[in-house]
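Give me structure tokens for this 488-residue protein.
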Amino acid sequence: MSTIHDQAMNYVYQQVLQRLLSFFSRAERTALQLLIQRLVVAAGGMDNIGHFKVLVNQSGSRDCCYTLALLRAAQLSIAGRAPATFQLRVATLRWNGFGPTALQNMHRSYGALFLYDDPRVELLMVDHREVLPFDHQASVSDGGREAHRLNLLLIGHRRSFSEELEMWDDAYLATAEYYGQIARWNNGVDAMIGGESPRRQQYFLDGLSRAVQKAAIAGPLVNTAGFETLFPLLDGLGGDYYREFYTEEERTAWRPEGQFEACRRTGFVNINDMFVSKLEERWPLLSEFLGYQADDLALYHGDDEYAEPVVAAHLRGLQAQFIEARTYEAGISEHLQNRLMEMRRKQVPEPVCEQWLSMFDSLQESEHLRMQAQAWLSTNFDLNQIQLTCLMFAPFIDSGAGLERFLRHCHPGMLVALPDLHRAMQGLHAPEQVLKWMTDVSGLPVRLIIRLYAMGAISLPAPSEAASREEGAGVNDAVTIVDRKAEG
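Here you go.
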């Protein structure tokens, strides 16, 4: 019975492979053969391929789904011509910013590729430092939701007043910690497979470098080799990337405990050069076969895959309004100009640029954009406008150096309580109403505000002059289109 079942499943897998290959161009079929060769070499030869396990991260994005399809084609191609093929671990980090579209994209692509119930495939998700079987219907746990909210605020507050808020730096830190742990779980994996371009890799590493400095666990990270040296870099950061914010009793252990290898052996295999087709040529594979659906406003994410587009525009508006003494509308316009400039610099097709910009047409009234962004932050991170404004000012670090400025701008009635606020942030006795005000305004418990207060200021390097010049190129063209959209 088992033999008959295995034969039937092998037939199904080969049918899946044939249909998958029917969506590949000739160049993609050639790239697939090169991918197979690369995996065989990484495994140490075809004799070892059956014991070779690879990890691929899945976020439900367009590129992640495409990478997974290439790997599945390689896995099934080897299975059709050899006694064994490599094992595949597909994992995702669950966090508050994950929307239902991404989860459905993952579920549909897993089903289309027949990953469910294939013993050669592990489908996993990590929620609140616990490794679990993937479940597209499960919401983020209450503990995970609260941890992500607190960590986003803590990392966000670790900056100077004048430095622009990088809202998603905690996502880089959480993702890096997840990479290091999921690669060691349950006997580990031999290699992580990634399709990120060198530019995208560097963008991630730059975000991680900011985040580890804000988490006070390392200085600026120096890495010129991209993800090739990612895992040695992660090993050097230690086991718990949030250890400076929480006491040992407050920390959540990675679970299931005792199932993580102490010595990790994982390398990195980049397959970005296997992405031989143009974006528009991949749509039949993505949409017709994998069932991928694009979120309209996430049509073009740019290098920062964590940023919610409407929230990113909202933050730029708040930066202009509160920090730069300009208008909210000026900040939004500037943000759209810069993003459109970036898209054109990367030669994103003009129809895509126009479509992306048109997504904001219904939000032309700044109040509509403000309300939609705030609704997203409230739904996903339980963060209200008052707490977001507090985060913009970052008033707590460096012994509350920016506290008086924050009060004068946003809460002048609390200036009389300034001495009490300082005492409370030093862990000394203060009136109960002062403690409640601190929590309500920041969204943080007093114990964590006290820890931020005790942390010194950090100074992150400014963007290089060359990068600034590159960002400034083409702004006039972008302004023309943004202004035309606003007028139309």
